[in-house]
């Protein structure tokens, strides 16, 4: 009987360790996690439409109020960050709410992918990634689209394949004549519902790629 109990306990420990998956980091420091409050500071997402939620998240990014963003992160799946339109769940960074709060003020660097054109590896902190890449332009002034791809380059857009149950918004800044209209940028926010409320499962940037 004692042997059976020990085997059950060991299996439970192994199961927990397999489910823990943190993003790959470049540097270490002693930052600790911050407790997450289940009560969001924003208005109830159940009563908002997608455009309202999109606008609120853009303001959070614009004002760099990143801790508020954690309340929008999917409670089970976390949020994935993709540098370009092609989403790769095996390679792209995924942060749970807890991980996001733990690393948002940390100087720990993560590898986010390769920059188009140069092929250089992009390594930076979570906070810098949000300010320098995700919100590289003022998307709050962009054109709003819902479940529609406006910005199109040479890279495949596979949001609907990776997230078949999701809806998404696109915030599109058109290109200029000076650069033959190839200097456009898009920020796509991908949502899935939990108990009839929208939560972020992915934040996807897009631009012209070679």
From TrEMBL:
Q: Which domain of life is it from?
A: Bacteria
Q: What is this protein called?
A: Lipoprotein
| Lineage of the species this protein comes from | Bacteria, Pseudomonadati, Bacteroidota, Flavobacteriia, Flavobacteriales
